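Standup, Tuesday
Yesterday: got the pipeline producing structure tokens again.
Today: sanity-check two examples.
Blockers: none.

Example 1:
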Amino acid sequence: MTWRPSARIVRPGGCASAQLRGMALQPLLAWPDSNLNGGADYSVDFAGVLSPGETVQSFAFDTGGFGTQAWTYLSGTICTAWFSWTQAGGATVNVCALGSSGATYQVAVSISVSGTAALIADVPPVRPT
């Protein structure tokens, strides 16, 4: 099978989500562009790669030094983190999830961070419960 990735962008105040479809080596996923000192919540939905009945047990995001993470949240198969972008340029965020079967899944998501600073630095909202 091949990846059939689709990026799902939700209106401001919601998650910018990257959804995985099918199975293969590496999807080409991207989140919406952002600005230096800008921030938002970003998500990856692992539903398309998990086995039937499998759930995400734990996960981690790695911004490669381009952003600082305020919080993370897991809702079913969707892994979410809130980032503030501290460096400009093209960044790759690695997201790794551990499934209930013991299998691990990793995806790289691209984002472009503009060198133009956000007019108002974003402050992370309260972590979802």
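Example 2:
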Amino acid sequence: MPGSRPRRPGRLIALLCLAQAAALAVVAAEPGFAAVGAALAAAGLCAVPQFSLFLQLIDRTAPPSGWAQAQSLGGVADTAGSAAGLAAGAAVAGALGAGPVLAAAVAAALAAVPALAWALRG
């Protein structure tokens, strides 16, 4: 339904984290160039919906008087976190190779699921 919002955005974020972990696990297995490209594309397709759902969670919890500020700070936090993660991943990949970075990315995506379940319970 156009314009409708998910009832439980936290659950959808958790499902997207699982999808990212699965796609990155395929990449970590080094199946070949075409499969790696497809898996990275699948993992990347999860990013924008996750951000949208994250902003919906902020929308639902921010007080009306601080809504704009909460949305702005949430966007900044998401962008800064992504940039820091990419920079750290590149540094580790340069020092140790891609394997440890991909393993850490899979672990982080999987760790987000129970963390979200706890934080968004109720």
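Quick observation on example 2: The radius of gyration is 16 Å. The mean pLDDT is 81.
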